[in-house]
Amino acid sequence: MSDDEDFMQESDEEQYDFEYEEDDDDEGGDVDIENKYYNAKQLKATDPQDAVNEFLGIPALEEEKGEWGFKGLKQAIKLEYKLGQYDKAAEHYQELLTYVKSAVTRNYSEKSINNMLDYIEKGADDAAAVQCMEKFYSLTLLSFQNTNNERLWLKTNIKLCKLLLDRKEYGVVSKKLRELHAACQREDGTDDPSKGTYALEIYSLEIQMFAEKKNNKQLKALYQRALKVRSAVPHPRIMGIIRECGGKMHMSEENWKEAQSDFFESFRNYDEAGSLQRIQVLKYLLLTTMLMRSDINPFDSQETKPYKSDPRISAMTELVEAYQRDEVHTYEQVLQNNQDILADPFIAENIDEVTRNMRTKGALKLIAPYMRMKLSWIAKQLKISVPEVQDILGFLIVDGKIEGRIDQQEGILEITSSADKERLEALQQLTTSIHDLFGAVFKEGEGISNPDHIISDEAGIEAAVLGAAMNKTMRSTQGKAKKKMAMWT
C-alpha cells in the first residue's frame, strides 16, 4: 500500500461512515429493522463481532430485498474485512451484489460499490487481503458484465489492472489495458472525449508499467499522448503519477531540465491531492537540482517553501546545500550518515552522478594552487581511493578542464601552466614564420630570374649576413621551445 493510501485510509473510513450515516438518516423503514441497525452500529467500537452478527440478521427481517438489508450487509462486510475474515467478507459481498439490480437505485448502488472497493483497496496490506480484494473485483465484474453500467465496469477494471500491476503481472496487465483503451474509443477508433478522465487513468497505469520495465521508447510515446488529452478533469494524483514517470524518463536520458520541470509538476499535483508521495517526488526534485549544477534554491517557489524544514527531506536538503557550497567533505558526511536515502532505487541509481560531480569540483578546487602533486595526497584530501582519483583526473584532462598529465608509475599529477603553453605555441609559430620567410628570400641553387628585382652586391651581402643571424636565432629559439615543451608533455 502506497504512502498516500496509508495517509488517506483513516479519513476515508470516516468519510464512508459519514456517507452511510447520511443515507441512513434520510431513509425510513420498519422500526424494528431500523432499531436493530442502529443497535448494531453502537456495538462496532466495543464488540465488532457481535455487531457483524447483528448486521447480518437484518436481511432476514425483510420480506423482500430492500435498502436496510443492503446497508446491513455493507456494514458487516467492512467489519469482517477489518477483522481479517476475508472469506466471509467475499461471501457476503457476493450476496450484496444481488441487491443492486432491484433493491436499490442504480446511482446509490454504484456509489456504494465504488466506496466498498476503495475501502477494500486501502486495507489490502497483506497477501490474504490482496487475494480477497481480487475476489471482490472478479465478483463485481461478473455481476455487471451483462448490464449497461459501463462506468462501474471501467472503474472496477482500472482498479483490477492496478492490482495486477502491483504484482508485476505485465502480460495480463497489457491485455487488460488494450481492452480498456478500446472501451474509451469510438467505433472509428478515435478517442471518446466523454471518457477522457478514464483514458488518463489508463494511460497512467500503462506509463507506470513501461517505466518499471524501463522501455523508454514506448514510455515517451505514451507520455506525450497522455499530455495531449484535453477532454478530461483528472484527479490530481493521476497527473502526479504521469508527471513523476515523465521526470524519471527524462532523467534516464540525462535531460535534467525537463526532468526538473516534470518533478515539480508532479510534486504540485501530489500536494494538491494530499498524497504523501509528494515527499518522495520533492526528493527527486532536489536530486535534479544537483544534477543540473544549479545554484537556484529549490525552496524559493511558493509550493515547496512550506517543506523546507520538513524532517523527512532534511538529509536531501543538507546534500543540496553542501553541493552548492562546494563542501565535498560535508557532502560525503551527510551521505554517510543518511544511508536511508539510498533505500529508494531511483535515488540510489542517480546519486552516483551527483557524487562524481561533487568530487570533481572538489578535485579542481584542491589542485588549483599546485603544479605537481602525488595522487595519494589528493586521495587523502578527498577521502577517496587512488583509482577513483585517477578516474576523476583523467576525465578532467580529457574534458579540457585541466592541462596536465598523470604519471601512473610514479603516482604523480603534473600540471602544465596554460599561460606558458600558449606563450610557447606563439613562439613556435613565430619561428616557423621566420623560417618560411628566410626560405622565400634565399633559395639554395636558384639564380636571379627576374631582372626587375636585381640587387647590388653590397645589398646582397647585407641580406646574407642578416639571414644568417636570423637563421641562428631561429634555430636557437626553436630548440629552446622544443626542449621546454617536452618538459610539459
Automatic annotation (TrEMBL):
The keyword Membrane does not apply. PROSITE patterns: PCI. It comes from the Eukaryota. Pfam families: PCI. Residues 252-420 form the PCI domain. Its main location: cytoplasm. GO terms for cellular component: COP9 signalosome; cytoplasm. Residues 1-30 are annotated as: Disordered. Keywords: Cytoplasm, Nucleus, Signalosome. Signal peptide: none annotated. It is found in: Cytoplasm; Nucleus. InterPro entries: 26S_Proteasome/COP9_Components, PCI_dom, WH_DNA-bd_sf. Component of the COP9 signalosome (CSN) complex. This is COP9 signalosome complex subunit 2.
